[in-house]
């Protein structure tokens, strides 16, 4: 069984350690992102390229430093995501959302 990817992992990258309610599992994220996007997005997290800009129950916002900084928002209920990169603007779950 795969370990869940928690929103707290996003928070850890910006120096915060407080856990958030509601989490997206690794399986859920992998189902939304294609394999290449999942691998590249995971690399962005590992490399510290994710900065949390806001968080509240069931919602998190971040800036992801890719080719340029991109704004990402993930919501648990209703499940929604957005990214202002060219792929994300087409409502695709891009590497920045991983």
Explain what the structure shows.
- It contains three helices and four strands, in the order αααββββ.
- Strand 1 and strand 2 (59-65) form a beta hairpin.
- Helices cover 27% and strands 26% of the residues.
- The chain has helices spanning 7-13, 26-32, 35-46; strands at 50-56, 59-65, 69-75, 80-83.
- The radius of gyration is 12 Å and the shape is globular.
- The chain has a four-stranded antiparallel beta sheet with strand order 1-2-3-4, covered by helices on one side.
- It is of the alpha+beta class and 98 residues long.
- The longest helix has 12 residues, at 35-46.
- Mean pLDDT is 80; it is low at 1-21.
Give the rounded overall mean pLDDT: 80
Uncertain segments of ≥5 residues (pLDDT<50)?
Answer: 1-21
> Globular, elongated, flat, extended or rod-shaped: what is the shape?
globular
Radius of gyration: 12 Å
Task: Give the termini separation.
Answer: 19 Å
What features would you highlight for this structure?
98 residues, four-stranded antiparallel beta sheet
Helix and strand topology:
Layout: H1 7-13, H2 26-32, H3 35-46, E1 50-56, E2 59-65, E3 69-75, E4 80-83
Antiparallel strand pairs: 1-2, 2-3, 3-4
Q: What's the gist of this structure?
A:
A hairpin with a 3-residue loop joins strand 2 and strand 3 (69-75).
């Amino acid at each position: 069984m795969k370990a869940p990817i928690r929103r707290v992992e996003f928070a850890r990258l910006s120096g915060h350690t407080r856990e958030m309610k509601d989490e997206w599992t690794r399986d859920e994220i992998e189902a939304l992102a294609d394999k290449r996007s999942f691998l590249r997005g995971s690399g962005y997290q590992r490399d510290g390229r994710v900065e949390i800009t806001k968080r509240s129950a069931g919602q998190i916002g971040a800036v992801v430093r890719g080719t340029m900084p991109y704004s990402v928002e993930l919501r648990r209920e209703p499940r929604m995501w957005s990214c202002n990169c060219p792929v994300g603007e087409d409502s695709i779950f891009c590497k920045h959302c991983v």
